[in-house]
Amino acid sequence: MDADKIISELNFKAVRSSGAGGQNVNKVSSKVVLSFDLNASQALSEDEKLLLQENIVARLTSENILILNCDEDRSQLKNKEIVTKRFLEIIKKGLYVPKVRKATKVPKAVIKKRIKDKKNISDLKQSRRKPNIE
Prior knowledge:
By secondary structure, this protein is an alpha+beta fold. It contains 5 helices and 3 strands; from the N terminus they run αβαβαβαα. Strands 1-2-3 form a 3-stranded antiparallel beta sheet, covered by helices on one side.
């Protein structure tokens, strides 16, 4: 994954933001909407695209477009930086492949210890019983 290539494929749109800012909200378009078309991406291989489709399916639209919004700051530039960082984190997490677990053999010493402990508990319980007088 080449972050610079992917960032060059992003589409940004500035829209009017709701929330704090007073009269400034009505004049300035500070909210940033990021959209990324997964199918049209040249920076990702086909395997990476399939992996992302599986891992971030809840965030994608039906046309496999990822849309993120940011209106945390009054500055459009800061919002753009924030949403780009969020996007890169999502892509990084989506491309993560966990290591395959290798099954290991249980050591003989562990098996012997478990059986010895079971025998000790059995003997202890046996000694607590009433004697069988016949």
